[in-house]
Amino acid sequence: MTLLEDLAAIRRTPEEFTRPIIFVCHSIGGWVVEAALHISSVMERPDLRIIEYTSGIVFIGTPHFSNDTVSWASLLRNFEKLTGRTSNKTFTQSTSRDFESSEIQSISRAFVEIAHRFEIYSIAEETAIPAIGKIVGDDLSVLRLANVNHLSIPANHVEMSQFSRPDEIGYKRLAGAIASLKRAASKMMEVD
How many CA atoms lie within 13 A of 182 on its CB side? Predict the structure, then answer.
């Protein structure tokens, strides 16, 4: 609940409290946002109900488990390769088998139930990391919901949120997504 509490702590004045929120999250940080929004949807304290003021989300390289064809074991192996840490084969196999009842799957399913409330951009990595591949494969990077805009950035998982110049295509795509969400948030404020 720390994200909710942190946001409540900085949203104290009436203007701050009602200001629309746009989340921009990379990789498994998207799961943190999904979980926070789900938890927020059942909170009774008004200052923790950030779901009411969230207008948009940009997921950058976030794995989504909104369909049953995902490869949890593949994702786990890719993160192991990326970090240089490995788990044993039995763990990976049992993790894959137990995924259906995992907390991450529960978070993803709960998020799908509330996702219609937001404008969402899901941005996939286009480039593989040498000797590893794509960290979040094409089957995981797609959030199959009607209100989701799908984009990609011509970079690998690590570099897809790092830009050195504003004229880079990846920067332009991400900035365009954020600008679109900002316009939607402005309209949300006009209505209230």
Answer: 7
Give just the sign of the alpha carbon dihedral 106, 110, 111, 115. Answer: positive
Q: Whose structure tokens read 């593949």?
A: 74
CA-CA distance, 152 to 146, in Å (whole number)? 17
CA atoms within 13 A on the CB side of 189: 15
User: Model's pTM, two decimal places?
Assistant: 0.85
Four-point Cα dihedral 71, 76, 80, 86, nearest 10? -110
DSSP string spanning 24-92? EEETTHHHHHHHHHHHHHT--SGGG-GGGTEEEEEEES-----STT--HHHHHHHHHHHHT----HHHH
**Amino acid at residue number 161:** S
User: Per-domain residue ranges for the chain?
Assistant: 2-184
Rounded to whole angstroms, how far apart are CA atoms 153 and 155? 6
Cα-only R_g, the chain: 17
The type of residue at 5 is E
Q: Quick check: 88 pLDDT over 50?
A: yes
Is pLDDT of 90 > 60?
no
Q: Are 152 and 125 in contact (CB under 8 A)?
A: yes
